Amino acid sequence: MVDPYSPAPAPRSRASAPLSLSAPARPRRPRCLETGRGVLMAKFVLAGRADCPYYAKAELLADYLQKNLPDFRIHKITQHPHVWEEWLEHLCEKNKWSHTTSPIIWRELLDRGGKGMLLGGYNEFLEHAQLYYSVTSSMTTELMKMIAQENLETHVEKELEGESLKGLLSPLQVWITSASAPACYNLIPILTSGEVFGTQTELSIVLFDSKDAEEKLHILASETHDLVSPFLRSISVCTRVQEAFRQAHVVIVLDDSTDKEVYALEECIRSRVPLCRLYGYLIEKNAHDSVRVIVGGKTFVNLKTVLLMRYAPSIAHNIVAVALGVEGQARAALARKLRTTPASIKDVIIWGNISGNNYVDLRKAKVYRYESAIWGPPYFSRPILSLIFDSEWVNGEFVTTLRKLTATGQQLRGMLTAHSIATTLKYWYHGSPPGEIVSLGVLSEGQFGVPEGIVFSMPVKFENGTWKVLTDLKDVEISEKVMTRMTSDLIQEKLVALGDLINFQPYQSEHQDSVSSDLIQDEEKDVVMSNDVDSSDLIPQTISEKPRSQEPTNDSEGKSVEQQQITLDQL
């Protein structure tokens, strides 16, 4: 119920409205009630429907009296026409009054409190003004209607402003799926530090997972309370599928595991569909209209992202895949080689499949604050490839290291996954550093020659609460051979998952060992590194592909999300 004493907004054009009043040169000052403490000042409360012409007429008369009489005070309340009758009924019931029209006016003694004394409607207020103050109003009907319309417009504007302020005061709803995963344990302290969403934003975090993980989730929630973060409004646990993502502003999708027995890569790919279909349906149904979905993890990141887009089409542009984990690993390897810090290396681009066949592009990479014969101010940088003279290391050890990490998923375990997700969210809400290139998995619309309809990691920048692909970058062309290699697996994964392709056939290059030389330009040392992953590496580390005659492998990883998939089938 609306507060009956909330003040009414001032009309925008009231100062210029012609005042038509019949009054003496100075309104007669009435006798005031005197007590032992002095003079009591009368306050009138004027309430009405925002579009009521008689409220407008009474309001103008009351404004005149308040301006000219030191002991006269007016408090104004307007209500939207849709809620006026309900509000009036509640007010009269509370004060035991009988009144059915707009406006309603009552008097209160400022020093006494308690319920007011009902004066009546417009006619009664006009009679009161004539009798006690010798003032009356002769406002025309046309002017009454004009001011009434202004009142309604001003009232609506104030309601919208109030909703906006309320939104600022309400906590940001953050849902984390598969919350019993190790990455969640590392992610929560970062989210509640104030660095990701800002120090003006409070969070309400919901940990979502299967029923079997409920005890672990409650322990995690209890530890989170112990952080005593000033930015955490609440943290709760949800294991009921029907309640998932209610009013979510942010959904963080972590790696799901399965207890299902998996015999082949194709079965592993198809096993991702039920959960993504469930999440997509629930996000469309329950989440906030402007929800942002961020997919992290170490297995089938691009595939899960494109499936979520398929099953939550209305927010497809707000679903992205995190690529900063791979980028961070590449920057760390380069930093070790150059004996500098990873933070000083910028603009390393990750192309392609985040958890599979991708390319680490060093053609735009720079290093800042590098100790060498050439030194400059903090904004001075040097191209990475001009400082690494060991091309064998670049095309050999560097590529091999990143390949092994992607194959085992070690580059995206707990701490790095959490930091990558948090950094991506921070950029999404506050913008990426000016001029800096960020890698992000987004739905391709044909940029850089990438086939449409697949999620592909490419260079972007974040600004104004959204992301934009950096299609204006120069000298980042990719050869047809390399593009085919990167996109082939992504296209097949999608087709296998949706049942349009039975068997997955990994792309085989004729010269795998020298594939990185496809984009090498000897004079400029422009290189794209191949993070070449064998087809067997696409299966999660705990799920191995075996012939059907062998015993199946059980993927446990300490939690069960398959029960959520079963719940989906039962819905």
UniProtKB/TrEMBL annotation:
<feature type="compositionally biased region" description="Pro residues">
    <location>
        <begin position="1"/>
        <end position="10"/>
    </location>
</feature>
<feature type="compositionally biased region" description="Low complexity">
    <location>
        <begin position="11"/>
        <end position="25"/>
    </location>
</feature>
<feature type="domain" description="Lactate/malate dehydrogenase C-terminal">
    <location>
        <begin position="330"/>
        <end position="490"/>
    </location>
</feature>
<dbReference type="InterPro" id="IPR036291">
    <property type="entry name" value="NAD(P)-bd_dom_sf"/>
</dbReference>
<feature type="region of interest" description="Disordered">
    <location>
        <begin position="530"/>
        <end position="571"/>
    </location>
</feature>
<dbReference type="InterPro" id="IPR010945">
    <property type="entry name" value="Malate_DH_type2"/>
</dbReference>
<comment type="similarity">
    <text>Belongs to the LDH/MDH superfamily. MDH type 2 family.</text>
</comment>
<feature type="compositionally biased region" description="Polar residues">
    <location>
        <begin position="538"/>
        <end position="571"/>
    </location>
</feature>
<protein>
    <submittedName>
        <fullName>Malate dehydrogenase 1B isoform X3</fullName>
    </submittedName>
</protein>
<dbReference type="InterPro" id="IPR022383">
    <property type="entry name" value="Lactate/malate_DH_C"/>
</dbReference>
<feature type="region of interest" description="Disordered">
    <location>
        <begin position="1"/>
        <end position="28"/>
    </location>
</feature>
<dbReference type="Pfam" id="PF02866">
    <property type="entry name" value="Ldh_1_C"/>
</dbReference>
<keyword id="KW-0560">Oxidoreductase</keyword>
<dbReference type="InterPro" id="IPR015955">
    <property type="entry name" value="Lactate_DH/Glyco_Ohase_4_C"/>
</dbReference>
